[in-house]
């Protein structure tokens, strides 16, 4: 997708949408104690841009975006920095130790990483373990967000990226922050990963029902 | 903490995270190929080493730590 199209989608088209944080805005208070790992599914990325800019940045929350080293990532990198969001190039899963570690340091320093746990290439709606480990090692919680839109197009990408139609309603449900404790064995960490995946799925489905 | 104790503790961390016995770890063992360290495990390893040994490992140094022996050598050179 070219830069002018993305700017259109996240700019004037996005601005025509009505943003409704229908539940859980009180959890934003958690940012006062430090960064949180903001998580939503990858297909909601364009919708999430509205939340990041008009809800979180407006509150002065420092954000860091992990963007892939692909050409799409280059575009996201430029776009995010244009909005004033710090970026780290890399991945939380594949060959991404350095990217994940930089994000970890930003989180420890008080910034909130914006993560799509099924990104950058799927499988769709599978919460990868890297995001849980990031939260665990930084000792800062995951903030799950279910996001949906009343009217949208679906792109033919791996995630079927949702593009809001003009004047659509974007519904956001913010879940309770989830802490991933230190000292978990592999089975316990996997159980926590599944819990995060289930939570994000449930919030997203509920947001979809609200947006209809 | 002396260098030998640091190396002993580092091996204990590697063993704990890779589900191997510390006594079975060989310097030639590759962290990824032999011990199964992926990116999340590598983050756990680096953060735990920094915390337990009270050291700071730069990204440049971390990128060179491919094997158990690399970690031994890195700690010996501190």
Indicate the radius of gyration of chain B in whole angstroms. 11 Å
Largest interface: A-B, 20 and 13 residues
Number of strands of chain A: 9
Average pLDDT confidence of chain B is 95
Present the secondary structure layout.
The complex is a heterodimer of chains A (212) and B (78).
Chain A: H1 3-10, H2 12-15, E1 18-23, E2 37-39, H3 45-56, E3 63-67, H4 71-83, E4 86-89, H5 97-108, E5 112-115, H6 129-138, E6 142-149, E7 152-154, E8 162-164, E9 169-174, H7 186-211
Chain B: H1 3-18, H2 39-53, H3 59-63, H4 68-76
Helix pairs in contact in B: 1-2, 1-4
Question: Can you give a write-up of this model?
Answer:
The complex is a heterodimer of chains A (212) and B (78). Chain A is of the alpha/beta class. Chain A contains seven helices and nine strands; from the N terminus they run ααββαβαβαβαββββα. In chain A, β3, α4 and β4 form a beta-alpha-beta unit. In chain A, α5 runs parallel beside α6. Chain A starts with a helix and ends with a helix. With 78 residues, chain B is mainly α. The N and C termini of chain B lie close together (12 Å). The chains are: A alpha/beta (212), B mainly alpha (78). Chain A binds chain B through residues 91-98, 100-102, 104, 129-130, 132-134, 136-137, 186, and chain B through 19, 38-44, 46-47, 59, 62-63.
């Amino acid at each position: 997708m070219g830069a002018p199209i993305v700017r259109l989608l996240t700019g004037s088209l996005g601005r025509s949408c009505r943003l409704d944080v229908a539940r859980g805005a009180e959890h934003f208070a958690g940012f006062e104690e430090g960064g949180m790992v903001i998580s939503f599914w990858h297909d909601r990325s364009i919708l999430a841009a509205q939340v990041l800019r008009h809800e979180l940045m407006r509150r002065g929350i420092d954000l860091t975006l992990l963007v892939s080293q692909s050409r799409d990532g280059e575009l996201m990198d430029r776009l995010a920095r244009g909005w004033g969001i710090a970026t780290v190039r890399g991945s939380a899963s594949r060959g991404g130790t350095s990217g994940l570690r930089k994000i970890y340091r930003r989180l420890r320093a008080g910034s909130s990483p914006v993560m799509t746990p099924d990104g950058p290439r799927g499988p769709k709606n599978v919460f990868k373990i890297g995001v849980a480990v990031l939260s665990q090692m930084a000792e800062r919680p995951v903030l799950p967000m279910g996001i949906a839109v009343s009217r949208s197009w679906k792109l033919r990408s791996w995630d079927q990226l949702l593009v809001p139609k003009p004047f659509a309603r974007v519904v956001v449900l913010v879940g309770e922050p989830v802490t991933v404790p230190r000292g978990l064995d592999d089975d316990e960490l996997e159980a926590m990963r599944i819990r995060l995946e289930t939570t994000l799925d449930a919030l997203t489905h509920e947001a979809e029902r609200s947006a209809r | 903490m002396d260098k030998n104790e640091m190396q002993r503790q580092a091996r204990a961390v590697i063993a704990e995270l890779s589900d191997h016995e510390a006594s079975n770890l060989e310097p030639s063992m590759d962290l990824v190929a032999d011990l199964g360290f992926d990116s999340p495990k590598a983050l756990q390893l680096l953060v735990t080493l920094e915390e337990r040994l009270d050291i700071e490992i730069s990204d440049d140094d971390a990128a060179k730590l491919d094997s158990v022996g690399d970690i031994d050598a890195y700690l010996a050179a501190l």
